[in-house]
Design brief:
alpha/beta; 7-stranded mixed sheet
Length: 228
């Protein structure tokens, strides 16, 4: 009888711990726990910590019809090794996120072209018959890999091709960080980082920014469900 009661208490405590972890925003469908004798091992994916994007310039009115756009690889302005390679990779993640969200009906990525300056970029955009130019800068980048803290900042500008006017200016930033194992009576909680945290961060930042531009360009009735 005492053994049965102890087993029931153990199951109840484990259930409460799992619910507490989920209530804190760290428990996702991908998370799992490994059944074993003794304390259970619970793994949850690390969240992306960020605030809302800062929008300093935006259009007063929505377009009459959805506009098309092209994106240049991001400029990594922080001194580092191989900034062009990183800028192309981060730009591609951003482009894929906005393409999947259908922010623009046509969204080109000039992944083999570095930012040529506004005048040449406008000329190239006109030759591609698109309405907007999207360009971004990464002024801050810290890579901690799968074991340390990774953070990055992103500045985004959007230009109207016809008049060459800058119509959107946004800034955003995010970070992913590890946390020591948390030990409970019946479980150990581990925070799991991806192999390339920078790409996960960029996906989330791009999604947050897509909500602003997508609602303006497409008259979305509800925002995208961005990852937590």
């Amino acid at each position: 009888m005492l053994t049965k009661t102890f087993d029931q208490i153990t199951v109840l405590l484990l259930t409460l711990i799992m619910l507490a972890v989920g209530a804190c925003g760290y428990f996702k469908p991908q998370d799992h726990w490994e059944p074993r004798i003794g304390p259970q091992e619970v793994y949850t994916d690390a969240p992306v910590f960020r605030n809302e994007p800062i929008v300093s310039v935006h259009p007063a009115d929505a377009p009459a019809s959805a506009m098309t756009a092209m994106l240049f690889p991001f400029q990594v302005t922080q001194p580092m090794d191989k900034p062009l390679i990183l800028g192309r990779a981060l730009g591609r993640v951003f482009w894929q996120t906005w393409n999947q969200a259908q922010v623009f009906p046509t969204f080109l990525y000039e992944d083999e072209t570095i930012w040529p300056g506004l005048a040449r970029a406008l000329a190239l955009a006109r030759s591609k018959d698109v309405d907007l130019i999207v360009r971004g800068e990464v002024p801050y980048f810290l890579s901690g890999g799968s074991k340390g803290t990774t953070s990055l900042g992103l500045s985004l500008e959007i230009y109207e091709v016809r008049g060459g006017q800058r119509i959107w200016v946004m800034e955003h930033s995010g970070r992913m960080e590890p946390r020591p194992r948390r030990d409970f009576i019946v479980a150990h909680h581990h925070r799991r980082l991806p192999e390339e945290p920078a790409f996960s961060i960029m996906t989330v930042l791009a999604c947050d920014m897509a909500n602003h531009v997508g609602m303006w360009n497409n008259n979305w009735l509800q925002s995208l469900p961005c990852p937590k």
